[in-house]
Amino acid sequence: MNKTYKKFILLFIIIIVILLFFLNKYNNIIEKNQTDILVSNKIEIVQNELINQKKQALSLSILFSQNQNIVNFLEKNNSKDLKTELLNLLSNIKNYTNVNNIQVQVHTKELKVFVRSWEDEDIGLSLKNFRKGLVKVKETKEPFVSNELGKRFNIKAISPIFDKSKEYIGTIEVIMDYSDLKNRLEYMGIEIIPLLEKKYLNIAKYHKKNQLLYDYVVIQDKYDRKFYDILLENKKYLSNKKFYYENKNKIITQIPLGNIELESVGKLMIHFDKNEQSFKYLPRYEYLGEITSKSDFKNLNEKEKREIIIK
């Protein structure tokens, strides 16, 4: 009887251990799925905010291209009054929206710099050899927005300018950096650091003195230093081999930043609290399996094509 009792106890313990093992494994799977959903939601928020910022830049570009004062001043080669008009428009935008990261550039039909809202340098400089977005707009005569390499890497929304006879006379470009995007996402509990591959600094000369991070350069002057230090101490986080990485209670992930040829030239590093499960801004998504960031770039660009259509 005592021997049978010992066997029963041993069997009971074995069963409990097995149950605990599978319960723990099941809980880990559930937790991973929940984290995958959270990361997917956060990435969706970042992508949507980035698309919305591009739409905002494109909308302004289209509106400015139809401003008759701008059209007339360009047609009459009056750069002084054109710049005054641009500065007045930007001042109104800043006063009524608190958006102050907008710059505007006007080009002649030969794609030479005519007016810049932020400086008077490089007037008359030809941009056709390294500004593919400008060449595209001149050829298609249609508005276009993208992350584009120039002296800086940022959002560039370009629209053609036509005179009263519908003749193409130049282009206008609205330029936005990632500071407004950073501020909006920070309010939602998300930190970002936009990075550009170092090999493009021969084009993006403005960023040559910016902070380096291994094979990348930080393209914003203001960024979360703690997040930067985490990336500096963990080089693997810059890799897209995994959908996301965990550092204590923080999640680190990324989305690619590409140029107009759908080629990745940088990345937007993303950082947020793992325990923020009930964040009010999160949309609801179903878990559809693990996501690999290698395929995300093409899908993101396809989404932007669908979202930003000018007829």
> Which residues sit in consecutive blocks of at least 5 with pLDDT less than 50?
278-295, 305-311
How much is the average pLDDT?
Answer: 85
Give the class-level CATH name of the largest domain: Alpha Beta
How big a fraction of the residues is strand?
A: 15-25%
If helices are DSSP runs of H or I spanning 4 or more residues, what is the number of helices?
7
CATH topology title of the largest domain: Beta-Lactamase
For the largest sheet, list the strands in their spatial order. 7-8-6-11-10-9
Give the fraction of residues assigned to helices: 40-55%
In the CATH hierarchy, the architecture of the largest domain is 2-Layer Sandwich
Described by the principal axes of the CA atoms, the overall outline is: elongated
Fourth CATH level, the homologous superfamily of the largest domain = PAS domain
Number of domains: 2
Order of SSEs: HHHEEHEEEHEEEHEEEH
Computed Rg: 25 Å
Strand tally: 11
Measured between the Cα atoms of the first and last residue, the distance is 88 Å
Largest sheet: 6 strands, antiparallel
Q: Which structural class do you get from the secondary structure elements?
A: alpha+beta
Describe the 3D structure.
The protein has 311 residues and is an alpha+beta fold. It folds into two domains: 123 residues, 2-Layer Sandwich (Beta-Lactamase); 115 residues, no CATH class. It has seven helices and eleven strands. Helix 1 runs antiparallel to helix 5 and helix 2 runs antiparallel to helix 3. It is elongated and about 110 Å long.
